[in-house]
Design goal:
360 residues, 18% strand, 15 strands, single chain, Rossmann fold, 6-stranded parallel beta sheet, alpha/beta, 36% helix, 7-stranded parallel beta sheet
Length: 360
C-alpha cells in the first residue's frame, strides 16, 4: 500500500452532470482514506476541482492539511491528458503541471487515461472496472479498443494502481497476470454527513410535494445508462400493476442521456406507455444531491438492478443511511451487501416484483 505519511497528494476531481459519480468517487475515496488513517494530519492534500463543483468538497475545509484549488479552465473534462486512439496527439494540461511543480506533489490521483511518462513517479492510476469485457454489447468497437489499449498501457507502466473491488482485481489479474506489483484494492464508503445535515422532515415533505411523489415508493437513483438495467425494474412494476393489481410507485432520478446508446431512454418511455404504467413510474431526471438523499431517506426500499458496477455508490449511500436495498446478483454486490440487502437474479423481473411487494 502507498505510504502517504509526510507526502503531498493531489486529487483530480473530474466529473459533472454527465458523470456526477466521478466527483463523488473522489469525495468518498478521500473520506475513506482519512477514516482508514491512510491520510493523516501529516499528509498534505490538494483537491483540484472545477469551480462549479467545488461546493461538493466544502466539508474538507475543516482539515488544516486539505486545500481546495478551483480549476480555472472551462475545458476540464480531459484535465490530465487528451490523447487520440492512435496515440498520435497528447496535450497536457498546463495549469495542472504548474501546480504539481509549484506544490512539489508526490502523488496525483486518480489517473485513468494513458500513462503520463513524465509524471510516472507521481501518477497513481485507477481502473474502476472492466465492464467492456463483460458487457461488450454496451460499447462501440472504438471505445472497446480505446479501453483495452488504455488499460494495457496502465498495467504495463504503472508504479501504483488502485482498483475499487476484489471483483475488479480478479478481472485484472486474469487479464494482466504479469503486472500485479503495485496493485491495491481500496473500497470506498459514502460520506453523506454534510449533505444530510439540513435534511429534516419538512425538507423531505417539500421534496415529495415538489416532484409529486407519494409517501410510499421505491427509489432507483441511477443514470439512465443501459447497463443500469432500468428495463428490468420497469418490467417488475408492470408485473405488479398489471398482473398483481398493486398500485406501487417507482421513482427514478439521474441523467436521461446515454452517449453509448442514444435511443435507450426513448425505448424505456415507449415501454412505459405500452404497459400503461406512466402513473407508477416517476422519472425526475437530474436533481440536487440533497433532494436525492431526501428521497432515499423517505423511500420504502432502494433498488439497484445494475448489470455491472465497479463499486456502486448507490449501494454505499443506502448503507450509510441504513436503508433496505434490493440489488442484482452481480459479483460486486456480494462484496458490498450487508444485512439490509436482498439479492435478486438480475433479469428476473417477477422475482424483483415479488421482493418489492414485500415492502408494501
Amino acid at each position: 500500500m502507498i505510504d502517504l505519511k509526510n507526502k503531498k497528494i493531489m486529487f483530480i476531481a473530474n466529473g459533472g452532470k454527465e458523470w456526477i459519480g466521478g466527483l463523488y468517487y473522489v469525495k468518498n475515496i478521500i473520506y475513506t482514506m482519512i477514516k482508514k488513517s491512510m491520510i493523516t494530519g501529516e499528509t498534505s492534500v490538494y483537491i483540484l476541482v472545477k469551480g462549479e463543483s467545488a461546493s461538493i468538497f466544502e466539508t474538507f475545509r475543516k482539515y488544516k492539511n486539505v486545500n481546495i484549488i478551483e480549476y480555472k479552465n472551462n475545458k476540464f473534462n480531459d484535465i490530465i491528458i487528451k490523447a487520440s486512439i492512435k496515440f498520435t496527439k497528447k496535450i497536457f494540461d498546463v495549469q495542472m503541471i504548474t501546480l504539481i511543480k509549484n506544490y512539489k506533489i508526490d502523488y496525483i490521483y486518480p489517473v485513468n487515461s494513458f500513462p503520463l511518462f513524465f509524471l510516472k513517479k507521481q501518477s497513481v492510476y485507477w481502473i474502476p472496472d472492466f465492464q467492456h469485457i463483460h458487457l461488450p454489447e454496451m460499447f462501440s468497437e472504438k471505445e472497446i479498443d480505446f479501453r483495452n489499449k488504455s488499460f494495457r498501457n496502465i498495467a504495463q507502466n504503472h508504479l501504483n494502481l488502485i482498483l475499487s473491488s476484489n471483483d475488479a482485481y480478479n478481472d485484472y489479474k486474469t487479464i494482466y497476470p504479469q503486472y500485479l506489483n503495485g496493485v491495491n484494492v481500496i473500497n470506498f464508503e459514502s460520506f453523506i454527513e454534510d449533505d444530510i445535515e439540513n435534511i429534516d422532515n419538512e425538507f423531505i415533505k417539500r421534496t415529495l410535494e415538489k416532484y409529486n411523489v407519494p409517501e410510499e415508493f421505491v427509489f432507483l437513483p441511477n443514470q439512465f445508462w443501459k447497463h443500469k438495467n432500468h428495463i428490468t425494474a420497469f418490467k417488475a412494476i408492470s408485473y405488479l400493476v398489471n398482473n398483481k393489481k398493486k398500485d406501487i410507485t417507482l421513482v427514478c432520478t439521474g441523467n436521461t442521456e446515454d452517449y453509448r446508446n442514444i435511443d435507450y431512454f426513448s425505448k424505456l418511455k415507449k415501454f412505459i406507455n405500452e404497459k400503461n404504467i406512466s402513473n407508477n413510474i416517476r422519472i425526475l431526471g437530474f436533481i440536487s444531491r440533497r433532494e436525492q438523499l431526501a428521497l432515499m431517506i423517505a423511500c420504502k426500499v432502494v433498488l439497484q438492478p445494475s448489470l455491472f458496477e465497479g463499486w456502486g455508490t448507490v449501494v454505499e449511500d443506502a448503507k450509510a443511511l441504513n436503508k433496505s436495498i434490493i440489488m442484482s446478483n452481480i459479483n460486486v454486490h456480494y462484496e458490498q451487501k450487508n444485512d439490509k440487502c436482498t439479492i435478486f437474479e438480475r433479469d428476473n423481473y417477477v422475482e424483483l416484483g415479488n421482493l418489492i411487494e414485500k415492502y408494501f
